[in-house]
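@channel sequence for tomorrow's demo:
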Amino acid sequence: QVQLVESGGGLVPAGGSLRLPCTASGSVFAIKDMGWYRQAPGKQRELVAGISISGGSRRYSDSVKGRSTISIDNAKNTMLLQMNSLGPEDTAVYYCAARSTAQGMNATPRYWGQGTQVTVSS
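structure tokens (generated this afternoon):
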């Protein structure tokens, strides 16, 4: 089993920045890749950014591309999402997720954190 713990959410002014760390524990050797998802009220959950466990492969949604950076520190079992130029449209609950090595490329992540609220004030 893998446990994921998010932190870094809160109230942020429009135009501001945010760092979202996610720390994994447990069977971390079984993780293939990790990512940040978000779900705004009344909307479907969407992938914000993802990264392979080696850090060699990264992807971003169009909505955050160019203003966000995802990284991973395997020594600390921590993934970090840095988001800049935040707007009210970034308000959502952000979830850390991880897929296991047993999962396919397009599978829904098996492991999820509890989520952290991010609210961007206009």
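heads up for whoever presents: The two ends are 40 Å apart (CA to CA).
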